[in-house]
TrEMBL record:
Belongs to the sigma-70 factor family. ECF subfamily. Keywords: DNA-binding, Sigma factor, Transcription, Transcription regulation. The keyword Ribonucleoprotein does not apply. This is Sigma-70 family RNA polymerase sigma factor. Gene3D superfamilies: 1.10.1740.10, Winged helix-like DNA-binding domain superfamily/Winged helix DNA-binding domain.
């Protein structure tokens, strides 16, 4: 989809380009999360409204435009879902035939993919030492002793490095606008 998108969302041209590049994906994401075409359209509109209102806070050095927009869309979908959950009427899914046929729901992996993209961007901003200890222990499942044997760094130093690496990762993700 995306070409070179102007990231100045405070102007109509930048906002229109961002919508053209990411609007359909955000609609599909919202529809999968909400199960209602009308609410999904509302979610897309609200996402771009919030993006326009907070355009001055967007920093392309922290996250891609797509990642930033999907983070906003995720919050919008959650807000709409919560609002709908407190409504006094029962919600009927858009696919009544599927429900009647007893079809299992489709697993939505969008949040997982989005989370991985955000974590990858955050890890890229860490020092090589911090990134290595997180990747090797948390993602590859290696113990501190195994890592110490191959890297030549004492296990105690690796534990200390992990403490500071996780702290730096949390700060980095907060700077990217990710809430815990």
């Amino acid at each position: 989809m995306g070409g070179a998108v102007t990231t100045d969302l405070s102007h109509d041209v930048g906002l229109r380009a961002a919508y053209d590049d990411h609007g359909p994906e955000i609609y599909r994401f919202a529809f999968r999360g909400l199960g209602d075409a009308g609410l999904a359209q509302d979610a897309v509109q609200e996402t771009f409204l919030r993006a326009w209102q907070s355009a001055r806070h967007y920093d392309p050095g922290l996250a891609s435009l797509r990642t930033w927009l999907f983070a906003i869309a995720r919050n919008v979908v959650i807000d709409l879902h919560r609002r709908r959950s407190t409504a006094s009427f029962a919600h009927v899914t858009a696919d009544e035939a599927g429900v009647a046929a007893g079809l299992p729901p489709v697993t939505d992996r969008t949040d997982t993919v989005l989370a991985r993209a955000v974590v990858t961007q955050a890890l890229d901003r860490l020092s090589p030492e911090h990134r290595q200890v997180i990747v090797e222990t948390h993602l590859r499942g290696r113990t501190y002793d195994e890592l110490a044997a191959t890297s030549g760094v004492p296990a105690g130093t690796l534990r200390s490095r992990m403490f500071y690496a996780l702290k730096a990762l949390r700060v980095t993700m907060e700077e990217m606008g990710v809430s815990w």
